[in-house]
Design brief:
Number of strands: 6
Strand content: 5-15%
CATH topology: Rossmann fold
Helix content: 40-55%
Number of domains: 1
Low-confidence stretches: none
CATH class: Alpha Beta
């Protein structure tokens, strides 16, 4: 069974799209990479700043390693796996190399900065969820890191004008042709 890595900046729609996409398969798993960060009770050092501390990077790599292991194991057990996390820069290539399951797909959600700002404001108003905290990289800076520092592997989709359903349909239609990596 395949593994699909779904990434993008905070508030790009990853969780919502991953859940809807996983719902399209008879046997599927939605692995939320951030769950491994939240499991750390004491000693957690979060990413966020433009120059994160070495311990934050070490914990981020651990989180990615755990997510890859879990994704591979679920795929071996017969599940289609949607692994969703913020994976930017060289970390995206590294994650693709760590996952052993084939086929492996990568999908990058890349809505405009204005759309991410609107989604972030809506999430904050509806649920009180704050993704972009003072002192962390802002939306424009994170978007720049996505577009300029992240290898252009897999399928990149500008979801600015799409509904969740349209995004899922586009992913499914283009999965085997545009999203496959490391065949």
């Amino acid at each position: 069974m395949p593994v699909l890595v779904l990434t993008g900046v905070q508030a790009s729609g990853k969780s919502t799209v991953a859940e809807a996409l996983a719902g399209r398969f008879a046997e599927s798993v939605h692995v939320r990479g951030d769950i491994f960060r939240r499991m750390v009770v004491n000693g957690r050092v979060d990413m966020g700043s433009a120059d994160p501390p070495a311990e934050a990077v070490r914990q981020l790599r651990l989180r990615y390693d755990l997510a890859c292991l879990v994704a591979d194991r679920y795929a071996q057990a017969g599940f289609v796996v949607i692994l969703q996390d913020i994976v930017l820069g060289q970390h995206l290539s590294e994650m693709a190399d760590r996952i052993h399951t084939r086929p492996l797909y990568v999908v990058v959600l890349a809505p405009s900065v204005d759309v991410v700002k609107a989604r972030e404001a809506a999430r904050r108003a509806a649920r009180g969820k704050v993704a972009y905290k003072p002192g962390d990289l802002g939306i424009a800076e994170l978007d720049r890191a996505l577009r300029e520092d992240t290898p252009h592997i897999g399928l990149w989709i500008d979801t600015s004008e799409q509904t969740v359903e349209h995004t899922v349909e586009e992913i499914l239609a283009r999965l085997s042709t545009d999203a496959v990596v490391n065949p």
